[in-house]
Amino acid sequence: MIGDLQCVVLDCPEPVSLARFYQALLGGTVNRGDRRWALSDEWATLHTASGQVLAFQGVDDYRPPRWPESSHPQQFHLDVGVPDLDVAHQQVLADGAKLLDDGGGTRGWRIYADPAGHPFCLVLERPPRST
């Protein structure tokens, strides 16, 4: 092993605003003090409730991905498990997400863009099967 993953960094035009979007989606604390990095107008973090960290880096000439076009590839995406897809759908739209693909309405997932254009999926959590 060479090292431990510290965080996933997303380029964006407004770091704190995007951190707050993901805070509404995942829970956690925006811009909690951390010895690994300094916070600034161009750098924000989200320490999620699950312990994972997302970081948001301001980029002046930011160009968002355009799913599914390869001229502006998605570069990464997050899958977020939810117990109720319809409720989660309404919540992320209210928080500024844009629906990209409704999964045909029956697939158990939907694809969205966050306010900066990064794709992410809401995936319906299925209860474990009893044996």
Automatic annotation (TrEMBL):
What this protein is called in its record is: Glyoxalase
Q: Where is the signal peptide?
A: none
* Pfam families, per the entry: Glyoxalase_6
Q: Which SUPFAM superfamilies match?
A: Glyoxalase/Bleomycin resistance protein/Dihydroxybiphenyl dioxygenase
Q: Which organism is it from?
A: Planotetraspora phitsanulokensis
State the coiled-coil residue ranges. Answer: none
Domain (VOC) ranges: 4-125
Query: Looking at the record's lineage, which domain of life comes first?
Result: Bacteria
**PROSITE patterns the record matches:** VOC
